Amino acid sequence: MIEAKNINFYYDEFQALKNISMKMEPNSVTAFIGPSGCGKSTFLRLFNRMNDLIDNTRMEGECIVDNQNIYDKKMNVDTLRKQVGMVFQKPNPFPKTIFENVAYGLRVNDLGNKQFIQERVEESLISAALWDEVKDKLNKSAFELSGGQQQRLCIARALAVSPSVILMDEPASALDPISTLKIEELIHDLKKDYTIVIVTHNMQQAARVSDKTGFFMLGELVEYSDTKKMFLNPEKEETQNYITGRFG
Amino acid sequence: MIKNKFFKRLIEKGVEAMLTLSGAVTSIIILFMCIFLFVEGFGLFKSSTVEEGYSIYVNSENPVSELSPQELKQIFDSEVTNWKEFGGKDQAIRVYRFDEIFKTYPEEEMGEDFSILPIVLGDVVRENEGIVAFLPTDFAPEANNGIKMIPADQISFSDFFLGEEWLPTATPSPLFGLMPLLLGTLLVSLLAISIALPLGLGVAIYLSELADERTRRFMKPVIELLAGIPSVVYGFFGLVVLAPIIQKTFNLPVGETALTGGVILAIMALPTIISIAEDAMRNTPREMREASLALGATKWQTIYKVIIPYSKSGISAAVVLGIGRAIGETMAVLMVTGNGAMIPGSVFDSVRTIPATIAAELGEAPFSGPHYQSLFLLGCVLFVITMVISVASEVISKKQNYKH
Amino acid sequence: MNRKISQQIAFTLFRIFGLLVVVILFSILGFIVVNGIQVINWEFLTTAPKDGMTTGGIFPAIVGTFYLIVGSLLIAFPLGVMSAVYTNEYAGRGWIVKIIRMMTNNLAGIPSIVFGLFGMALFVNKLGFGDSILAGSLTLSVLVLPLIIRTTEEALKAVPDSFRTGSLALGATKLQTIRKVVLPTALPNIITGLILSVGRISGETAPILFTVAAYFLPHLPTSLYDQVMALPYHLYALATSGTDIEASRPMAYGTALVLIGIVLIMNLIASFIRRRLERKWKRN
């Protein structure tokens, strides 16, 4: 379970998020949609404290992941990030072998011995629907994979450390339609084990993969409801306009 | 009007031709460098192992009929005093230099233009079975009945490249062995890089990953200034400050050692290493860092597991260029390493590097003699080493671009 | 928590390294300044060395270095700028440019003593200039050429392409565009390179050892074919081979301070210009 309570977020003077509160259910997919610069990515990055890396930012409010306030002083950020996986916009494998990419999180967190790592890498690659394609070339460079395969590798990499939550920041925006479809299927399969939050530009994608959808605009959460309801019968006029493509 | 336009175009063409020509100026210079260095340097292999204008004679009873430059040096330095060491009879070696003749025969008795001199010298050689005489060719006795000339070889490639002694002014046969100089250069450079690399890499990491904007703005000019200080000033500083410190710390007879040179060179190589390594690390894509942190890696884990491997070609280029800077550095090294031209046994020995040798000896080497040529040959060696280094660093940093 | 500790250790170490670099710079500067400032006065700067270089001043060396700076820049600056204009504006992206760039880089990596050898073989002996200002300036100009080419190229690259297309679209020829638009825009950056070259030239010793530098020459040169004293060589001579090294030590400190002063001032001016430009670009 993820919960955000009265979140305000500032880049210097600029307020990027305005008093946002929402809950995300476990074992479901929540999608954030909205025009560029609406704050949806910023909001997503709050949940593994990725925004800490940007200078001159300030946050107010509470973020609760698995019953813990993650902005609490006692919170260990590295542990949090292990618990909350993230997949980025562009595939960003490390300049290492396929195997080492997936094993990376396990190694840096000192998880398990050699055999455990071996097994975990295989499991993760299977979960990410990549195993069959790469099982014969685990020691090849990750850069030899296609873009779609690289992105699934990044998903496998995130899965390997057994997170409970996976954040995806436009995971398919840099991919071709077929690879996109594969990622979407994957998201669907992963839902039963993980809480997934996905930011997307692509409304059809949100409609296809998510259970609930939040619509952001100018740093505000305009509407948040079941995906079906949102796309068929939105409450707010701005949502209606955005979904039917009048702006954005 | 039309004529005017024509001239204008003519001028444009002329200027363009000039520009094209000047575009090639660096290539032309390098070509010229190659020609001048190599022509002059390879002249060394045409010169004789025995000092020009002189020859070596022995008594014809002596079974030894060949002597290498090393053997000659041993004889004339009295390191070897018996012929049996070179396969001759068990007989003391009597070294005879040309000017000794004037001790036994006064100059006035030599006749007009010293015409009697060859005869007198011939007698000396004939009468002494154990003699080895070093005589000017102009006054040399004829090599027959009792007199044998030791033939002089040309200096060979292996004499130079594998030679273990650098004694360019030894008589009668100077030794031009590259080894002590090359090993000295390498020792000092490796010392420098093994100090400068961890230090420089640490500073680069600090600047690119840890320091805030204000610190960075302060550090940048510091590093630029460090790069701008002339090498002779570093040498002066090393001589007056560092050498005494090293002498006291390690309780040495003198402070001018390979280590002193290494430390000074390390300081001089630092700016190169820091700025190139920092650039490479800053070029690590943000997504890489974020991906690593998002997996729960600490900042330090991210640095050594992702950022350093990612920028390793940049870092290697930095190392290579740092070594290049160290190998080629002249003045600072000349002033602080003590300049003993021997194969170094430890870092506390005095060493002499290739550039320092050129700087120290070229002024005294007679124009176009073997010594002069050997210094140009050293220049060729340096030239080739630095060319290889430039190309290597370019290839290495290309690799990084290709990876994207 | 182990990895937190190793992070702590590593980062502390790097901070210390950073500090160490600052300490090194300031101890070198401090050492030279504190010792040198006691020697420097009007007489030191304006008279010739006396009494076996243990008293007097360094005026001939300052003048000599000045001549060498002017001489070598007169040759290297136009040549370097033209070369950079050719590679950046005319030569396109083919293999010729690649070779030219590589050669320029290689030239930059060649040790300065090799330039000295080259200068001695070509200018002093082959062309028969002897040890002279002419030979020394030519040698130094070859040495500094890659620096000028590189900074000029960077300056030219910083000129937005829209300037060029704008000018060409108005019917200007390529050469006119370069002369009237590209070069004036790039000028401040090119000047920065020029100033850095002054710093480099004034500090180089090895290339002038056998091409121009005189150990002791109290009078000033009268022609291009004269030898001169020069600051860096003078420092080397004072530090290692004076008649009375202990007695000439203060002279050495003073010379080092003047030398370092020139180099640092040049660097500061250059980075001042660069910083002002950066701010200007940012504002636009």
Can you walk me through this structure?
- The complex is a heterotrimer of chains A (248), B (404) and C (284).
- With 248 residues, chain A is α/β, with parallel strands linked by helices.
- Chain A has a domain at 2-90 and 165-243: Rossmann fold, CATH 3.40.50.300.
- Helices cover 37% and strands 26% of the residues of chain A.
- Chain A is built from 10 helices and 10 strands.
- Chain A has helices spanning 40-46, 77-83, 98-108, 114-127, 131-134, 147-160, 177-190, 203-209, 227-232, 237-243; strands at 2-11, 14-24, 29-33, 57-65, 68-69, 84-87, 165-169, 195-199, 212-217, 220-226.
- Chain A has a 6-stranded mixed sheet with strand order 6-7-8-3-9-10, with helices on both faces.
- The longest helix of chain A is centred in the middle third of the chain and has 14 residues, at 114-127.
- Chain B is mostly helical.
- Chain B folds into 3 domains: 2-46; 54-153, Periplasmic binding protein-like II (D-Maltodextrin-Binding Protein, domain 2, 3-Layer(aba) Sandwich); 179-403, MetI-like (MetI-like fold, Orthogonal Bundle).
- Chain B has helices at residues 2-23, 25-42, 69-76, 101-104, 117-127, 157-161, 179-210, 213-228, 231-250, 258-282, 286-294, 299-310, 312-328, 331-336, 354-361, 370-403, and strands at residues 54-59, 94-97, 131-136, 147-150, 166-167, 175-176.
- Chain C is 76% helix and 1% strand.
- Chain C contains 10 helices and 2 strands.
- Chain C has helices at residues 2-37, 42-46, 59-90, 95-109, 112-126, 133-157, 161-169, 174-203, 231-240, 245-283; strands at residues 49-50, 55-56.
- In chain C, strands 1-2 form a two-stranded antiparallel sheet.
- In chain C, strand 1 (49-50) and strand 2 form a beta hairpin.
- In chain C, helix 4 (95-109) crosses helix 6.
- The longest helix of chain C has 39 residues, at 245-283.
- Chain C is globular, with a radius of gyration of 23 Å.
- The mean pLDDT of chain C is 88.
- The chains are: A alpha/beta (248), B mainly alpha (404), C mainly alpha (284).
